[in-house]
Amino acid sequence: MERLPRRNSHGWLIALCMIMVPLQGSLLNLSVAGDLRPDMALVAVYLCGLKLDKLRASLCGFLAGLMADVLAGGMLGIQAFSKMLSGWVAATGKKRFYINTALVHWVLLFALSIIDGLVDALFLAYFYSDYPLSATLPRVVLPQAFYTALTGSLLIVASEPATRAAGTLKNAIVQRFSHASSRL
Amino acid sequence: MKQYLQRHKVALSLLCALALSLVWITAQLGKEPATGLLQQTVLHTTTLPAQGIISAGSVLSRFWDGYIDLTDKAAENRALKQELTAIGAEVNRLREMTAENERLKKLLDMETITGKDSIAAAVIGRGPSNWYNTMLINRGLDDGVTRDMAVLSDGGLVGRVAMTFPGQSMVLLITDPSSAVGVTIQRTRENCILKGKAGGGCEIRYLQQDSEIQQGDTLVTSGLGGIYPKGIELARVTRVDRSSGGMFISAQAMPTADLRHLEEVMLTQSERLETGDGKTTQKK
Fold first, then answer.
1. Tens-digit pLDDT profile for residues B25-47
2. Global pTM?
3. A165 vs chain B: nearest CA distance in angstroms?
4. Residues β-bridged to residue B250
5. Cα–chain-centroid distance for residue B264?
6. Residue A84: which of B17, B33, B129 has the nearest Cβ?
7. Which of B38, B51, B130 sits opposite A36 (nearest CB)?
8. Is A71 within 8 Å of B46 when comparing Cβ atoms?
9. ipTM of the complex model
């Protein structure tokens, strides 16, 4: 009996989105001057956008954003919406703009982080007087976008050899198993 | 109709999500921060694995070091190196203990200000977002922590408890844009407000143009408002700008406590507080 091909669910990407948020507050607390950190959850959402369809990428973004809202003690729903939008934008834009180079990753991550930050900033400016756009745009949105794009693109490029090696290993194991089962 | 819905399902889903988010956010306006089941579940499920990953990381790192030693060196060299490593680790451990001891001693010294009922807590995480300056500590409702308790470190005031859960609490740092602390300039005794600033640091509000504030002045809590104890050092003035032309001076300040590298903090309630000379006792 011929086996049906397995669908690649990319469940690890969803797990990555979920784990990146608490890690960002503990192990990956890469804060620099001004207390800003790269948004590693957004990098994970960007990866989801590249690998998954629009609906799944949006869902990953929503889950990562909701987790960020809860763990940051902020108003629930703000980052959930902005990250969901980021997942959708990444999944929509990949066909048109995506080429696998560090520079393209940097530009796309920068643009995505600007969109994500702008949505957050607009929500916060609308609901709170403590977050005027004149202060948040230069002090949070722009530096965060720059730092996220830099860290994210470097990480993606650096992790490619490891991803390739893992793929090769997986293929070798699958081949060995199929070879053994055909002999049986 | 069905075809239209099918064709635009993603855009419609996003619109629905936006509408739901707006309703959700609007429903939270003007209410106390929620500490419901969702927050508790996420906190429980994330803090434990995060601590586990940190431990696993150090175990893996030790395992890798051991492997390099085994393959690289001759037996005698290895033994000597191990001995040296052990001594180094011991020295490092002792150094860490000395540093921890120093920090704890400074925290204990604060008992003269905070009273004996204060609660010591360890910092277990920072808020993952750049929009809010918060941190998570390992003491909660079960340990007697209540909302609005003042949080202090060896460097001075850190913030206040914003949300409490059974085993953890969320601390709102003084650098958060929604934080406002009533302060007194130690040298001139003028009162003003210290507000957190988006992107880090603090700004001084409502200080009149004839104020004698200078760069380097120390700010201490005024005790007004009832949340924070009086006379606790919390920030130093870094920039004063009198050219704004308005009614008030524009001035910036930086916290005296190193908020990025906090490890232990002390929690205390305003009503138990006494000043350094032991006179004032505030009631919330």
1. 777 777 666 667 777 777 777 77
2. 0.69
3. 20
4. B241
5. 10
6. B17
7. B130
8. yes
9. 0.72
